[in-house]
Amino acid sequence: MGYVTAVPHPRSQASGSARAGRRSLAVALLCGALGAAVALLATRQQWAEGTATVAGGAFPLTATGSDVTGVPAALAIVGLASLVAVFAVRRGGRVIVAALLALSGAGTVAAAVLGASDSSALDEKAAEASGDTSASVAALSHTAWPYVAAVGGVLLLLAGLLALRYGRLWPAMSGRYERDGTPRPRRKAPAVDPDRPEDLWKALDRGEDPTGA
Length: 213
Fold this sequence. Notes:
Transmembrane segments: 25-43, 70-89, 96-116, 144-164
Organism: Streptomyces violaceus
Mean pLDDT: 81
Largest sheet: 3 strands, antiparallel
Number of helices: 7
Low-confidence stretches: none
Shape: elongated
Strand content: 5-15%
Order of helices and strands: HEEHHHHEHH
Region (Disordered): 177-213
Keywords: Membrane, Transmembrane, Transmembrane helix
Number of strands: 3
Strand order of the largest sheet: 2-1-3
Protein name: TIGR02234 family membrane protein
Helix content: 55-70%
């Protein structure tokens, strides 16, 4: 009489790991690329606005994300580079690069959230516009773009966490371009037919003596 075992078959385990690797790879690539693009786009938008008093009147001022802080854009580029580098390394190197990707996302989130209430960039512009170094911006308000940049950072962080968890299942760049010290077999030169002028010219181009002398 047959019986049913609860022990999974090795082949089913391997196929399940392969599926998990493919899915996590697709999600990580999507999250990483989209997160970097969102963060970079958000830093180019207006984050804050206000006014400065100039000659008795109100002078409007605006500040983009890059005016407030350059950290989110820089970390987004680092995260995108780390996402690409994950496929160029193996084992311990892949873990380090995946951790860098996750840290880039976390740093982007932190910098964007801190910049959401920052007024130093507009204060500097108010001082320049009024000619008074002690001047500060008035009627200060902020937009939602810093939080959009934070969302991009969250996506980068998610891509890094997926790389840490499933990176060992992801493919790596082909090793055929790596030097391992093994001598490569020399390709045998094609035979030269002395009655075919084109073969003689090809042999001369290769630096060979077509006469066989």
